[in-house]
What we know:
This protein is an alpha+beta fold. The protein has 2 domains: 33 residues; 100 residues. The chain contains 5 helices and 6 strands, in the order E-E-E-E-E-H-H-E-H-H-H. The strands form 2 sheets. The chain has a 3-stranded antiparallel sheet, with no helix packed on it. It has a 3-stranded mixed sheet with strand order 5-4-6. A hairpin with a 5-residue loop joins strand 1 and strand 2. Helix 1 packs across helix 2 and helix 2 crosses helix 3. The longest helix is centred in the middle third of the chain and has 17 residues. It is elongated, with a radius of gyration of 22 Å.
Amino acid sequence: MRCPFCSSDNTRVIDSRPADDNTSIRRRRMCDDCNKRFTTYEKVETIPLIVIKKDKAREQYDRSKIEGGLLRACHKRPVSVDQITRLVDDIEAEIFSTEEKEVESDRIGELVMSKLHDIDAVAYVRFASVYKEFKDVETFLSELEKMLNK
């Protein structure tokens, strides 16, 4: 690691510990040439994931899109932000565990719906109505009947 003060390569780690978020390592370093200290963070590099949309367009995976959809579906429902965060973490773990470089948006939507169904039925129907693009009341009612028959 190069010293940010004198650009020397002669640095050493004097302390390592998990960072606040527990997903990275915080390292205190010291330059042996200028004796100044600095901090670095080490984080695992994940495989960039590409989402294939319904129109076959491709875009980089964005966690905030899932969170936003869930927050809208759970608006004024007894679902905590912690539950939503855990839900998104579970969905991400399932998506990234396949180690695929591309995933279809349909797969993500189905995962969200299956996990949301177990948390709150109203939020599930709200999410499904947008995700499945209900065109009329009959489509909406047929989805409700499927949910009630489970």
